[in-house]
Design a protein that fits this description.
Structural class: mainly alpha
GO cellular component, one term: mitochondrial inner membrane
Order of helices and strands: HHEHHHHHEEHHHEEHHE
EC number: 7.1.1.8
Largest sheet: 2 strands, antiparallel
Pfam family, one: Cytochrom_C1
Shape: extended
Protein name: quinol--cytochrome-c reductase
Number of helices: 12
Helix content: 40-55%
Oligomer: single chain
Cofactor: heme c
CATH superfamily of the domain at 92-132 and 197-282: Cytochrome c-like domain
Bound molecules: heme C
Radius of gyration: 34 Å
Length: about 325
């Protein structure tokens, strides 16, 4: 009787179910039609009981909890006790429509150029930009000649020469942006104990990113009634704690832009933040361009593979297997 079972039916059903199926078929007295999906119920049941499903489900639950906690803090069922008021963590910055925000948008390079000017003329007095070399500006905000000329204005220590002496030489494209202070102690001493952080990655290093830095630079106000600020500190509601060592640095008309853009406080803040955003993500434009290409390429490949899979499996998925008992035996 087994031998009369279609060989294809035995081959196609997984070995796990073939035995039970075959015996079920053997017990049945009438003609039994079976398709490859006839085992789907038991397959579903065993999938439900498998260790793999158990591990998967645990992983999904743990993952959702971790993701929720990452986004919103602790779970709502767990009470939180704050020693401080929520406002101590700083005012939440507004969301600004940055021109480079969005899947398809690149940096505004004219803004990066203006932003570099603001950094150089204002922020560079206190903040270093360690990870940016002069050559990085080439083709982004300045030409090679402009960058070289700017580098040459600065003296760098080099050496040792043939006599073992260190010497000073004009900067080259491969030199990194000079730091305003030789070390952290000097930086703190120059800023009443507060350390001006390196700005290379600051946009990535703060919650709220560009929105936060923009809000910080434009958000200086007098301390509200009842708030005491220590001598030498400044009030900024966006800075966690409210009291920041850096005073307001941007004022209307502080710099004069080459391209004639009016240098208002918010314009300079927007430009310098765009510049710092570029400094933190120099690969940004390229990344989005490659991303779009990858999405187009991989989605067409996916569609193609879907089509090929269905094409190849059609005869197998659409066949109908039935058992035809030998006539006259019963
Ligand atoms: C006179 C020196 C000085 C100048 C000029 C200056 N800063 Fe600062 N900046 C500081 C100091 C000091 C701190 C550290 C403040 C603190 O920790 O309380 C700081 C902190 C910062 C921070 C970090 C805030 C945070 O969340 O920790 C950012 C961002 C920043 N400055 C951006 C700028 C930008 C952009 C410019 C130019 C437009 C600029 N600064 C100009 C001294 C300066």
């Amino acid at each position: 009787m087994f031998s009369r079972l279609s060989a294809r039916a035995l081959k196609s059903s997984s070995s796990l179910f073939s035995a039970s199926r075959a015996s079920a078929a053997a017990r049945g007295s009438s003609v039994r039609f079976a398709s490859t999906s006839s085992s789907s119920y038991s397959a579903f049941q065993s999938a439900l009981n498998s260790n793999f499903t158990l591990a998967g489900a645990s992983l999904v639950s743990v993952g959702s909890i971790v993701w929720y906690t990452h986004l919103y803090g602790s779970l709502p069922v767990i009470g939180e006790v704050h020693a401080s008021h929520l406002s101590d963590e700083g005012l939440h910055p507004a969301e600004y429509p940055w021109s480079h925000k969005g899947w398809m948008n690149s940096f505004d390079h004219a803004s990066i150029r203006r932003g570099y000017q603001v950094y150089r003329e204002v922020c560079a007095a206190c903040h270093s930009l360690d990870r940016i070399a002069w050559r990085n500006l080439v083709g982004v905000s300045h030409t090679a000649d402009e960058s070289r000329a700017m580098a040459e204005e600065i003296e760098y220590q080099d050496g040792p020469d043939d006599n073992g002496e260190m010497f000073m030489r004009p900067g080259k494209l491969s030199d990194y942006m000079p730091a305003p202070y030789p070390n952290e102690e000097a930086a703190r001493a120059g800023n009443a104990g507060a350390l001006p952080p390196d700005l290379s990655l600051i946009v990535k290093a703060r919650h709220g990113a560009a929105d936060y830095i923009f809000s910080l630079l434009t958000g200086y106000i007098d301390p509200p009634a009842g708030v005491e600020i220590r001598e030498g500190m400044n009030y900024n509601p966006f800075f966690p704690g409210g009291a920041i060592g850096m005073a307001r640095v941007l004022f209307d008309g502080l710099v004069e832009y080459d391209d004639g853009t009016p240098a208002t406080t918010s314009q300079m803040a927007k430009d310098v933040v765009t510049f710092l955003n570029w400094a933190a993500e120099p690969e940004h434009d390229e990344r989005k361009k490659v991303g779009i290409k990858a999405i187009i390429l991989f989605s067409s490949l996916f569609a193609l593979s879907l089509y090929t899979k269905r094409f190849k499996w059609t005869p197998i998925k659409n066949r109908k297997i039935f058992y035809d008992p030998p006539a006259g035996k019963h």
